[in-house]
């Protein structure tokens, strides 16, 4: 039905150590067919509306965690078709809403307006092919933590069974995790608990726990088995074959994605001097832990968003200085001078005087004042940021001499 190898852009395997990666690349493949427009039990919203809310919460959390994370969105079952594989009737009704890029609030707004239930239908495996292809083209041979989230009710018949092997093979090459978010899946409570455990671990590279009670997709089907039940088995077996990921419950989507994860801290070593008595030793100081607060989101226009340009909704500040006595005239920056407030007036300071008032910074040093017993230090002193001090490589001999003096 389609040429082989449509997923592959490189045959080399990503070998970077995932623990050293700080950037995440996440692709959402969202089913927007008519089955997702069914109201949720006991609620006035549709399955798709609740799923979009959970996805938007995850996007916002990634924006808060780091500026390096990237998000892409593929919609399956749209009225129109917009993807690079749509040729000669293939991959119809699949729309790439956003290519992999740094997320913005404009993307969450576009999800709310564009991800609506449609009467058109498409094969969710076709959407998964496009999502994995997007991930491969953007991140192959680069240092990323890669994840694909397939959000579906799985009520439409899956025809593209032959693409399963190429999808699994490409996920292995990318070392990517596959999460199937099942809407109204007939999952056991044990399977749901395992899915929560993998996602809550906060490590997209973590391999999923054993999926022992999941049926294999090619096992003989019962005569009374519905299309949905057969699709669930198939998707569960794909997750198992991928080796990383889990099957998650759609009902817990909002709760799972609201769990913000800690930001990773990269250790930057700064060279300084440690003074012990009359000895001065070169040392390296770096932060072991760092206190952090939630960052504020950027302001963006809600009324306009171009999916082809993620920065189209950005807002820029235009600052102008004007004379209070003549507001019509703009004062250029070259005509501005610094000043200090003194009572109700400002005292202007020239650039020469401003430079003369600066205090020359001295090299930071650490001084060992005294030794004490561990029991004499209150526990509250260990709260907050923690810094480590290690000898500099070029001062090893000085430290050896210090050890002899102290002994």
TrEMBL record:
Keywords recorded for this protein, A-Z: ATP-binding, DNA damage, DNA recombination, DNA repair, DNA-binding, Helicase, Hydrolase, Nucleotide-binding, Nucleus
Ranges where the VWFA domain occurs: 25-238
InterPro entries assigned: DNA_bd_Ku70/Ku80, Ku_N, SPOC-like_C_dom_sf, VWF_A, vWFA_dom_sf
Single GO cellular component term: Ku70:Ku80 complex
A Pfam family that the UniProt record links to this protein: Ku_N
GO biological process, one term: DNA recombination
PROSITE patterns in the record: VWFA (PS50234)
GO molecular function, one term: ATP binding
Name the UniProt record assigns to this protein: VWFA domain-containing protein
Organism annotation: Rhizochromulina marina
